[in-house]
Write a structure and sequence with these properties.
- It contains eight helices and no strands.
- By secondary structure, it is an all-alpha fold.
- The chain has one domain.
- It is elongated and about 60 Å long.
- The relative contact order is 0.15.
Length: about 140
């Protein structure tokens, strides 16, 4: 009975929601030309954890999962935030493009724990190639 009260009680403590429709001047899409195919892949597979606008599924309001999700998003944005990409130095932007290409190539991103639930975020070989080519092109073009 006590456990049920605790489980019900924690449902009233919801974490901050990471949602903003605004595309700021520092957003990667404001700084660089993102090909439509690459943008669609980024929105589908990356932006939920690496931007200021997360699309929340129905289960995101159930505790303690919501806290785990909020922590995961915070950690993802700390590592890479497409919404504030322009705040990075040119050197760091170049490094981020290199790292993104490597992580996609090696299958490290998106995380398996994310794609387990979000099956539509799984990258096909074609998706990987599109992202890797764009990331590599951007890394080479930044002066």
């Amino acid at each position: 009975m006590g456990l049920a009260v605790i489980i019900i009680g924690i449902q009233f403590f919801q974490p901050f929601r990471n949602q903003s429709e605004e595309v700021t001047a520092t957003h990667i899409e404001s700084l660089y030309t993102v090909p439509p195919k690459a943008k669609a892949i980024l929105v589908q597979s990356c932006y939920d954890c690496h931007s200021n606008n997360t699309r929340y599924p129905w289960y995101s309001r159930i505790q303690p999962g919501a806290w785990f999700m909020a922590q995961h998003i915070e950690k993802g944005k700390k590592e890479l935030n497409f919404s504030s990409f322009g705040e990075y130095s040119i050197r760091k932007q170049r490094s981020k493009f290199r790292a993104m290409a490597g992580q996609v190539k090696d299958g490290e991103m998106p995380l398996a724990s994310y794609t387990l639930i979000h099956r539509n975020a799984v990258l096909s070989q074609e998706d990987k190639q599109v992202l890797i080519e764009w990331f590599s092109t951007m890394e080479d073009s930044i002066k």
